[in-house]
């Protein structure tokens, strides 16, 4: 019986990106969890141990941080596409990238009957999706968005998973 190597993927899960905007008297909080999965021409990694085509997970995490700092995050969907296009476009062996972003919702704490300008509490149950619930982008301000970007020469998405 011949053993065939299937479609390989790897990545960096759960990179937390938290930003507190301190513009003026009223602060805002942005809290994201970014996961990246990459796939492509990685057979040598598994068959011979040659990892030259592998983008280290620390580099993936640092790219998330660098893009968040340099380009900002207006819409999480746009940020996911930006990251996925970067990974596919800058790494020749990488043929597809999947980026999933969870956005956590925070609400202002009430102090003396009014919302405090600098104090927040994480809103539940939407802090983290579970196996029975998936919150999509249409349900914003909390949600889970996934985006996949394929190279022109990549296999169809159904075969990549």
Return the CATH class.
Alpha Beta
Please identify which CATH superfamily we are dealing with: Urate Oxidase
- The CATH architecture can be given as Roll
Output the strand order for the largest sheet: 1-2-3-6
What is the tally of beta strands? 6
String of helices and strands = EEHHHEEEEH
**The biggest beta sheet, please?**
4 strands, antiparallel
Domains, number = 1
Low-confidence runs: 127-144, 157-161
Per DSSP, the total helix count is 4
The oligomeric status of these chains comes to: single chain
CATH topology, by name, is Urate Oxidase
Shape: elongated
Can you give the helix content as a percent range?
A: 10-25%
Average pLDDT figure:
77
Termini gap: 24 Å
Polypeptide structure, described:
Strands 1-2-3-6 form a 4-stranded antiparallel β-sheet. A two-stranded antiparallel ribbon has the order 4-5. It has 4 helices and 6 strands. The chain has a single domain (9-18, 32-104, 127-160), classed as Urate Oxidase, CATH 3.10.270. It has helices at residues 43-47, 57-71, 76-90, 157-160, and strands at 9-21, 28-40, 94-104, 106-111, 114-122, 143-150. It is an alpha+beta fold. Helix content is 24%, strand content 37%. The chain is elongated and about 70 Å long. A hairpin with a 2-residue loop joins strand 4 and strand 5 (114-122).
């Amino acid at each position: 019986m011949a053993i065939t190597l299937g479609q390989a993927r790897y990545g960096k899960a759960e990179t937390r990106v938290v930003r507190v905007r301190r513009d003026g008297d009223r602060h805002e909080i942005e809290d994201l969890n970014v996961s990246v999965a990459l796939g492509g021409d990685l057979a040598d990694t598994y068959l011979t141990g040659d990892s030259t085509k592998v983008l280290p997970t620390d580099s993936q995490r640092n790219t998330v941080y660098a893009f968040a700092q340099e380009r900002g995050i207006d819409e999480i969907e746009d940020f996911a596409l930006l990251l996925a296009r970067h990974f596919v476009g800058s790494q020749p062996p990488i043929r597809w990238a999947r980026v999933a972003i969870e956005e956590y919702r925070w609400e202002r704490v009430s102090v003396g009957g009014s919302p405090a300008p600098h104090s927040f509490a994480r809103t539940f149950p939407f802090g983290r999706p579970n196996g029975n619930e998936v919150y999509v982008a249409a349900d914003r301000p909390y949600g889970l968005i996934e985006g996949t970007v394929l190279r022109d020469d990549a296999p169809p998405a159904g075969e990549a998973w």
